[in-house]
Each structure stands twice: as structure tokens, then as C-alpha cells.
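Homework help board

Subject: predicted structure for assignment chain

Our instructor gave us this sequence and asked us to write out the predicted structure in C-alpha cell form, then describe one feature. I got the C-alpha cells but I'm not sure how to describe them. Can anyone check?
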Amino acid sequence: MKSGPSATTPASVPAAAGLGGAPNPPGAAPLRTMAPFVPDAALVARVLARRGRLRAFERLEPARCALVVIDMQNAFVEEGAGHAWVPAAQSTCPAIERLAAALRAAGGCVAWVLNTFTEESVRT
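My C-alpha cell output:
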């Protein structure tokens, strides 16, 4: 693993996965970006006082990391495929797929958590 600031910042993993400002691969769906998160200065001061540093981990070792993807399945992602469609879910799929591919390539684990529905569970 590389050392230095680029390997220890949270932005380094998403950039490797085609996220966080890295160019979109040709033919890939356009990425939607989230509003930047700026923590309150009082929160930052409390975290620094308690932990001595802003981030919990100095660096991440991909082989010891897992990406856990929850409920990215047809019933939630595809219109008309189930009772629980979430319109915004489908637009996140390309980013999740790129992040999963990058983590796997770096030796990490990707776990997909799927929910199963029965007729009875849909009614109750």
C-alpha cells in the first residue's frame, strides 16, 4: 500500500473507484454528487480533544476492509419489480459497482445483504 497523504485520506479510496472527482469511465452512467459535508467546528474540537486526531483510522488496509451493500436488489432498484421501489436507488448502482470492483481488486471483501419477501410479509 502506498504511504503518504493520498493513501491515508478518505478521498483516496473513492478516487481509485471512479468516485470523488475522478473521471467517469467511457460509457459509464453519469455520477450524481452529494453536497459536501462540513462538520460543525465544535464537533471537530470535541473529537480532537477526545481522540487526538480527526479520523478513527490513520489508514485503511483494503484486505482487511469490507463493503456491505444493503438492499440493492430489484424490489428497491427497478421500477415495477416490487413493492418497495426507491426512485433514487438505481442512480447509485454504478458508483457502488465501481467501489466494489476497486475494493475487490485491492483484496477487500464485498458482501451483498438481500431481503426476501413472501406474500404474507408484504401484507403485514
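Reply (TA_rk): Your C-alpha cells look well-formed. For the description, you could write something like this. The chain has one domain: 5-123. That's the kind of observation they're looking for.
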